[in-house]
Amino acid sequence: MKTDGRLARMLHVLVHMGLLGGRETSERIGQMLNTNPVVVRRTLGALRQHGIVESEGGRGGGWKLVKSLEEVTVLDVQRALHEGTILSAPISRDHPSCPVERASNSVLEEAHAAAESELLKKYAATTLAQIAKIAVAD
Question: What are the φ/ψ torsions at residue 24 (nearest 5 degrees)?
Answer without folding.
Answer: -130, 140
